[in-house]
Amino acid sequence: MTGTRKRWLHALWGVGLTLTLIAACTFGPSPTTDARAGDRATALYADTIPPLEAVSLAPGEKLRVVATTTILADVVAQVGGDQIQLTGLLPPETDPHSYQPTPQDLRALAQAQVIFINGLGLEDFLAETLANAGSQAPIVPVSAGVAVIELDQPQEGEDASRERGRVDPHVWFSVPNVVIWTQNIQAALSQLDPERASAYADSGQAYRTRLQDLDAWIREQVATVPPERRKLVTDHLAFGYFAREYGFQQIGALVPSFSTSARPSAQQLAKLQEQIRQEGVQAIFVGMSVNPELAEQVAQDLGIQVVRLYIGALSGPDGPAPTYEDFMRYDVNAIVAALR
Predict the structure, then answer these.
(1) How far is CA 319 from CA 72, 266, 316, in A?
(2) What is the pLDDT along the chain (340 residues), one digit of tens a residue?
(3) 76: left (phi > 0), else alpha (psi -120 to 50), else beta?
(4) What is the reported pTM?
(5) Measured between alpha carbons, how far is 247 from 82 in angstroms, rounded to an integer?
(6) Is 154 exposed, middle or buried (0-12, 13-18, 19+ CB in 10 A)?
């Protein structure tokens, strides 16, 4: 066994084979005998928005809204503004894999009149929580209408079905996809709360204008990176939509999957190392909540750098990425600086 192979194996076991990916990964469903959890799990994989009926609200009462991830909660807040009562389930920089519902979460879900989710299996961890909360609120997958990315073949350690990890849920790395989010959110809020539809339309349009400016800024920054250097290696396959939208190549990942249920082998790492050498990749990009030990070992062997990014969650309010717009600007600046 070579010294490099030994170091890789040590790094793999040193992190317990648990690359703790942030809220940008899919996870296989937890077994449950609760039929309600099964029904809600089906809703979590839906790719269409369910029929929505207007909610009866008392004078001055606001629609009670729950959003799952911090990124989604920020986008919902931009559209709903102070017209809604919004609860975000996941705190900043929280990994859904380790998410434990609090009594406040269960109460918010039970009282919600609509639940916005990313969809595409990202929130599979919520199925049992939704059942336990007794929530009957409609579940709205904001990614409905996005052209999704799938793996051509199941990867080692992955379930072969679409619902178990083959669909890439990281749609927010394309700003035009988040424009689709805003349209879905605005339409849902307007149907549930038609008296405030004009307010939702105004705020939705204002936010879409800002998103268009953000998209144009990203393209300007990317243009400063020579095309032959626009190559991404990440901790997992999180940047497919970013690569497709902004002209990058997603060369590979330490975990060659959309899902944390897969684990890298020494053979896969050796193949990735050789590919990085051949492609002249300059950096490995790793999520803020991921243990960087394995990435740092591979980067050391190759003489390249490790760059930390926000992937599936915003920072806290005092951090550099407290909103979706800040999140994208932070990541694009980091990527451009590393590759340019």
Answers:
(1) 18, 36, 5
(2) 555 555 554 455 444 433 333 333 443 344 443 445 566 778 888 889 999 999 999 999 999 999 999 999 999 999 999 999 999 999 998 766 667 888 999 999 999 999 999 999 888 878 888 888 888 899 999 999 999 998 765 444 444 443 444 789 999 999 999 999 999 999 999 999 999 999 999 999 999 999 999 999 999 999 999 999 999 999 888 999 999 999 999 998 887 655 444 456 678 888 889 999 999 999 999 999 788 888 998 999 999 999 999 999 999 999 999 999 999 999 999 999 999 9
(3) alpha
(4) 0.85
(5) 37
(6) middle
Q: Give the separation between CA 317 and CA 334, rounded to whole angstroms.
A: 20
- Domain architecture of the chain: domains with CATH: 3-20+225-339 (3.40.50.1980), 35-217 (3.40.50.1980)
Residue linked to tokens 């600007």:
329
Sheet holding 84-88, edge to edge: 84-88, 63-67, 114-117, 139-141
Alpha-carbon span 114 to 105, nearest angstrom: 14
- Dihedrals phi, psi of 84, to nearest 5 degrees: -125, 160
Tokens for 226? 């020579």
Residue 70 contacts residue 91 (beta carbons within 8 Å): yes
